[in-house]
Amino acid sequence: MSVIDRLHQKRERLIALRHELHAHPELSFEEARTSELVARTLSAAGIEVHRGLAGTGVIGLLKCGDSPRMIGLRADMDALPIQEQNLFPHRSKHDGKMHACGHDGHTAMLLAAAEHLAETKSFDGSVAFIFQPAEETVGGARVMIEEGLFERFPVERVFGMHNWPGLPAGQFAIHSGPVMACADQFDITLRGHGAHAAMPHQGFDPVVAGAALVQALQGVVSRNVDPLDAVVLSITRFQAGEAYNVIPDVVTLGGTVRAFRPEVQDQAEAAMERICAGIGAAHGVQVALDYRRGYPPTVNTTAEAETCRRVIAQLVGEPNARTDLRPSMGAEDFAYMLKEKPGCYVWIGNGLGEGGCMLHNPHYDFNDDILTLGASYWVRLVEHLLAKA
């Protein structure tokens, strides 16, 4: 790995910063302490600080030279409502809250890069360091955009990075096109006519209809969408009745749809509407589908993905700039930024061992060994995109 020497010399301080963030996790739109730490660190480095977008969002603006060009680099700050089960000294000090997705590491890496670029001034143009709240819930990126992020900071391109457990430390993954899927949600209500469980013929059973619906909806994936288009439809909730001897009036189902293209989302929703109507008619019950679009697919633009690949290859070598990893059916609200601006979202390997425990797991921890590498990537990307003449 080709870590920048100055960043390597600050490794212990960077680890301490990451541990401080990990020990004090804050949930979406509650990142007051984290926001204050970020703003204080940026200000101490001489970086112009802007606060208030999406409540706890922070933007650091660093200008160097005469170029009018501006790029955006984004890190997420929020934690998850998980009870941490690690026992190391920097474990969460707040019950029911945990940095189980590595946003502590993302924030630390971007802060380190911002400090370094403020010291070296090794570029010509402007960088907006975007510290975003609420990635894990309703989409802090969307809220920042709605509140004028790109009007106030008119970046030409925007870039993001996420740690990826299972990918060896020292490697990055770069996708040209889709990286992450959409995250749509749905609820289905089936209304029948309740009856005594011993006399089912006297009612219209929404439980039987619901069971049939669960099976029929699997046909959306296997029979309504092109086999070459990846899509997932998962039923994750089935709630019905409270007594052993009563057929209930109402059954509710819920779940998620994941896909990489808006057209596939449209096909899935339309097919679900048809199937719900058919099952309702067949079983004599009323079926209502409430389908809600969540995070859109995260899709990199081709030119920016290639630019990031070249920068990464120079940093860690061609074999470690991986382009062979498949996209994930997980979702990411950086997608909203990529809908507005060209850009690229890369994965940095979090390792295979103890530090590589899967995301959203109570035993997860960000791998401190990749902090300086991630910061070096941000620096080299800025120096490449905003190179001095």
Describe the structure concisely.
The protein has 389 residues and is α/β, with parallel strands linked by helices. The chain contains 11 helices and 16 strands. The strands form 4 sheets. An 8-stranded mixed beta sheet has the order 1-2-4-3-5-16-6-15, with helices on both faces. A 4-stranded antiparallel beta sheet has the order 10-12-8-13, covered by helices on one side. It has a two-stranded antiparallel sheet with strand order 7-14.
Write up what this structure looks like:
With 389 residues, the chain is α/β, with parallel strands linked by helices. The protein folds into 2 domains: 5-180 and 297-385, Zn peptidases (Aminopeptidase); 183-295, Alpha-Beta Plaits (2-Layer Sandwich), CATH 3.30.70.360. The protein has helices at 5-9, 11-23, 32-44, 103-120, 140-146, 149-152, 206-224, 262-283, 302-316, 334-340, 371-385, and strands at residues 48-51, 58-64, 70-76, 125-132, 157-164, 172-173, 178-180, 183-191, 195-196, 231-240, 246-247, 250-259, 286-295, 298-299, 321-322, 343-349. It has an 8-stranded mixed beta sheet with strand order 1-2-4-3-5-16-6-15, sandwiched between helices. Strands 10-12-8-13 form a 4-stranded antiparallel beta sheet, with helices on one face. Helix 4 (103-120) crosses helix 11 (371-385) and helix 9 packs across helix 11.
